[in-house]
Amino acid sequence: MSRQTIRRRDFLRTAARAAAAAVAAPGLLGRALAAPKPARPLNFVFILVDDLGWTDVACYGSRFYETPNVDRLAKMGMRFTNGYAACTVCSPTRVSVLTGKYPARVHLTDWIAGHKRPNAKLKVPDWTMYMKKEEVTLAEALKAAGYATGFVGKWHLGPGAEYWPKAQGFDVNVGGYSRGSPPSYFAPYRIPTMEEGPKGEYLTDRHADDCEKFLEANRDRPFLLYLSTYAVHTPLQAKGELVAKYKAKAAAQPGYPQNNAVYGGMVDSMDQCVGRVLRKLEQLGLLENTAVFFTGDNGGLIRSTSNKPLRAGKGSSYEGGVREPFLVYWPGVTRPGSLCHEPVISVDFYPTILQMAGVQGDASHNRGVDGVSLVPLLKGGKTLGREAIYWHYPHYHPGGATPYGAVRAGDWKLIEFYEDMHVELYHLAKDIGEAHDLAARMPDKARELRGKLHAWRKAVDAQMPTPNPNYDPQNNAQGNAGRKKAGRKKADP
Length: 493
Prior knowledge:
- By secondary structure, this protein is an alpha/beta fold.
- It folds into 2 domains: 41-378, 3-Layer(aba) Sandwich (Alkaline Phosphatase, subunit A), CATH 3.40.720; 389-485, 2-Layer Sandwich (Arylsulfatase, C-terminal domain), CATH 3.30.1120.10.
- It is built from 15 helices and 17 strands.
- Strand 14 and strand 15 (412-417) form a beta hairpin.
- Helix 7 runs parallel beside helix 9 (261-283) and helix 8 (240-252) crosses helix 9 (261-283).
- It is globular and about 60 Å long.
């Protein structure tokens, strides 16, 4: 047994004993009754939508998808215009949310179990295909402080039950297991961690049912509800009436880049699910004591949607692969309808929620946390004073990515492609579509950012790909052509 595992168990055991002692110790109960009643701890609802593109909701610019409930959440709280996922694919971003650590630090750097490229130029590292149990997850940190913890939807962070939500701090798990996409969005679902619904029931509607049940059951105690929708990931399946609705919208907007009626129906159902959660919180009198977070795990899949004006999409090094809707509602703190332009990233959720909850968490785990609390921004501040945010993807993906690293510092973004170590440099404030590579014109800036990226990789012990002895350019299905295919002119439908 590792020291880290023992330390994690000691943290949870000690926290549980402390909570019990606070109630049961002689003399303490009487003093507690005599003391002023403390304010009820803040509740948390965290909503993570699979494969949601930056412009897949109306409050981020879509004129095709209808998302009145997500838009309402944006009006209630703060909308971040430069919010990012920690990776261009799902599993690494998910581990970043639950641990506050960059995927590179925990060596979980691809979706589980990744794409195989036996003849590619580079050999991917021996990465970790599960979230290590010694990590003290967000759920574990809050559970130790007396929170009820519920998980609904997609997990995709380990191959067996020993790595699923109930082994990682969640009291309730409905739907989370090893797979990253559902066998079907219509019952029978064939998902082993949830009861089957009646034939034809829609999975995203079922998520709403299960969230409502969790909220009802835990209305009288502090809670973390983590809603991780399987939508809008493939297979593309939507309810018939919604498909018809979006077919009519597509016909009425010829030439508009977002035009997939089935995907539109899936986005619509996702939004309805969000609305049901917000309404249940209202009905239970909990909305004014519940912080709500909303984001996605990677960019939109470009055969399903368009991420314009961003370049490319899921599985790409460009903005379309990592920039996300990013909303936070903190009742009584965030100014309704406010905007924040500071670059933020999914590793930031962990320290933010712990600070909002007034929970310290595990000190040894916290020393490895890469995220920065967003509380100063949520209270109206303009900057975090952070130098840069980073990405590391030492893998290949059909979405266009060859192994790469990237850094964003202020308005500047540099991408380093590991196959030949060339770099591309973009000024995102002036060139959000990454159409004009400035690396050759601004070598000093490129050198500065490359230096930051290399120093960060060393600091987090990032695993690098190595030359592949089986490299065969004739049989390599991706390579440079794959990256070019994901470029600006060919990326979006």
